[in-house]
Amino acid sequence: GEVCNMINKKYSEFLPSMESAEDLVSKVDGLASNIDLLKAGIENEVQRDLNVAVAEFTELKQQLERDTLVLSVLKKLQEFDTAIKDYNTALLEKKYVAAAQQLEKARSSLKTLESRKGFELKILKALGTELTVQTQNMLYHLGEEWQKLAVWKLPPSKESSGLESVVHSELHLRMVPSEEGEISGPSVTSVLQAFAVLGELHTKLKVFGQLLLKHVLKPLISYPSLQPLTEEQSDVFILRFKSEEANLDHSSPMEVFYKIQLVFEVLHKYLLNVPLEQPAEDKKEHRVTLAELLGNMIWEELSDCLIQNCLVNSIPTNSSKLEQYIEVIKSTEEFEKALKNMQFLKGDTTDLLEYARNVNSHFANKKCQDVIVAARNLMTSEIHNTVKITPDSSIALPRLPGPTAGDHLKTGKTSKLLHNDTMNLENETKLSQYTFALPMCRISSSVEKLMELAYQTLLEATASTDQCCIQLFYSVRNIFQLFYDVVPTYHKENLQKLPQLAAIHHNNCMYIAHHLLTLGHQFRYRLTNILCDGAATFVDLVPGFRRLGMECFLAQMRVQKGEILERLSSARNFSNMDDEENYCAANKAIRQVLHQLKRLGKVWQDVLPVTVYCKAMGTLLNTALSEIVTRIVALEDISAEDADRLYSLCRTMVEEGPQVFTPLPEDDKNKKYQEEVPVYVQKWMTFKELMIILQANLQEIVDQWADGKGPLAAEFSAAEVKSLIRALFQNTERRAAALAKIK
Q1: Contacts of 314 (CB under 8 A, 6+ apart)
Q2: Do 470 and 478 contact (CB within 8 A), yes or no?
Q3: Do 727 and 635 form a contact (C-beta atoms < 8 A)?
Q4: Are 197 and 253 in the same domain?
Q5: Which three-class secondary structure string do you get for 416-457?
Q6: Are residues 282 and 299 in the same domain?
Q7: DSSP character for 464?
Q8: Which among 55-59, 456-460, 657-661 has the top mean pLDDT?
């Protein structure tokens, strides 16, 4: 029963809340249907009215835009028309600037019309054509006027060239009448300003500028004899030229500047002092003048021409003249200033002045250029023109400035050359004259001159500004590097073919190496201050030069050795000399070798230093003797007659060999060297021992061997001696006994 009560209770609580929810739903339904009605009302009536209003508004707006456009187009057309009318009036009155301005107005109206999108009028094309015709018409009138203002009278270009044609050229400038007499046509100003308005001034001026450069300015720079003449008549100004005798190849910069300035002054006065646009009332600022425009067009070419054909030539070639160059710098400055005053040049232009002020660097460049050109000419000249070097010939060394002399750059006195026995390495230290002595020999005179050039240039360097000093020092180093690269290649064939040239080249290299040892040292006071510690030296180049000389000479020695062996190879191995034909071949080979050596002895005579000469000749004679020994020792059978003939061939070598040693031209002085031949020919004693064996009996050979302690043992091995005994003697008991003793 209790459970029923509980259910009833819950239910009675639930019922009322259920009823209130249903009530709410019915209210919401009512509201929704109201909204639907309202919505339908809006859609049907209000929206329709609104759409109509917007459409009407848009239509009106487009109508307005169309009308405004039409109105503005008509306005522009009217502007164009008025401008063309005003232009025609102004042109008739020769008011050129006004006319040109009206044309520009018409042009801008037309531009505006053409920019209207969606409004392409057929008439625009016609207007464009009209404008072009009128512009050309105006330019034609202006051109006519311009031709009257500046008249070039030039000779027909075919007739003559250069100076001739310049002398017959004239420029006539029509004078602008004063304010009162304004009858005689338009002024220069109005013609030029009208050109400017139409944007054609540049073209006109460019042509004028080119004519001016070609017929007036450049000739004045190039021909020293040309003088400008000016003549003023009532209504015209004339610029013409006359040619006077010139005493120099190049005019000084001062003269050239004077002439060019004169021309510019004339142009400025009669033609170019014209502002490009008409003055604006309220503005007083700087206006571009015609002079400035022309200046811009021609200055670069003109300044280049002035530098290349005038300033370059005025750069001094030795440092003593550098001081006088201040004058050139001053006149360059004044020239630029004058052109700036006339507005031909902008205020910051200083091309010429910078070039002139940079004279030290140009001086150095020019000097270095000259030095290298001179050096190259010396290197490519003939090697065989020689001079003799003796131990007491030092290069004509300049007396060097003391430690302080470099400071004040007054070195006029330094270049007195001393032909002094002692090398003046420093003024205070006298070295023995043989400390750095070279052996007597011949070198190319061109190399001596090259060395003098190096000394002169270094001397010049010590007297120059720091920058120049450094450049000159390095150009001297370049001389030697150039020699190292150029000479062996340039003279390659001759150095290979001609033994005398190889010898001279060897001496040249040794001579240069010798001087390079001390070259920097002599100038060290001045140079080391500027170049970093001790860089003022040439010592590093010495080994290269020694090697260069040696290699060339050794290559020549190899060629000569090759020829000796080639000749001896035709001696039939010196075998079977009892055969007449074989003997003749061997004899001929030996004669040829001696002849070759004799010829070399002659061409190297007085050229190579004596010690080098003796070593070289000794080496070659040794090659021949050594080859003969090798061939004879290798023979397996030598008859008595063979032995005699071989002996006489060897005797020829021993008697005539030393006579090829003729290092000096005076014969009596060569005896000493001929007697010393064994010193220079390594195999001399071996050869003499071989001759003894060819004539000796068995006992004598055994005695010469003397248990391996005799002279024979000093030159030949036991095996070689045994081989010779077997070849020379028949197989007997005595021979066996002798062979047994050789060990």
Answers
A1: 250, 252, 253, 325, 328
A2: no
A3: yes
A4: yes
A5: CEECCCCCCCCCCCCCCCCCCCCCCEEEEHHHHHHHHHHHHH
A6: yes
A7: S
A8: 657-661
